[in-house]
């Protein structure tokens, strides 16, 4: 059996571009429906809703402390790719509403679309050595050191975040949002497995 080939610079560039764009579209759908999500993006969405500040700015700033952990434990290349991914996503979420207007979308369907798109986007980022920072960094670190799947780590964090959100938002919003988070995390948990995908 031959050794797995390494991703080229072009492979990583298109993977990060696809992943960030797909996640940005998913987040645009999420915020149109007035839903929330988990992980670091979820914290940024909640802060954005409650404060009126730009999601892109909040998301970029809230990720800053995690780069130190990523640099120390996962290396400079992973950290650089994650910083690039977070920056691109922050910019895209500001630009998308100007060119992508949604007229009507059922919140349940919106939650599923968000979960599928964002899960696929995160999967692309993970497979090309990047992430959207924050909880994703911690989840990958735990998976690499203990074998406990990254998607399961993120799902546990999301359960805590949604429990807190239940006191801040209507229960219908929380339930539809939880559906989106479950879809997202199961996409990652089922597909992001090092025993099935070995190229880096």
Automatic annotation (TrEMBL):
Keywords in alphabetical order, please.
Answer: Cell membrane, Membrane, Transmembrane, Transmembrane helix
Which GO terms of the cellular component aspect does the record hold?
plasma membrane
List the protein's name. YitT family protein
Tell me the compartments it is located in. Cell membrane
Q: What is its main location?
A: membrane
- Which organism is the protein's source? Palleronia marisminoris
| Pfam families noted in UniProt | YitT_membrane
Q: Does the keyword ATP-binding apply?
A: no
Residue ranges of the TM segments: 16-37, 43-70, 82-102, 108-126, 173-190
Annotated membrane topology is: Multi-pass membrane protein
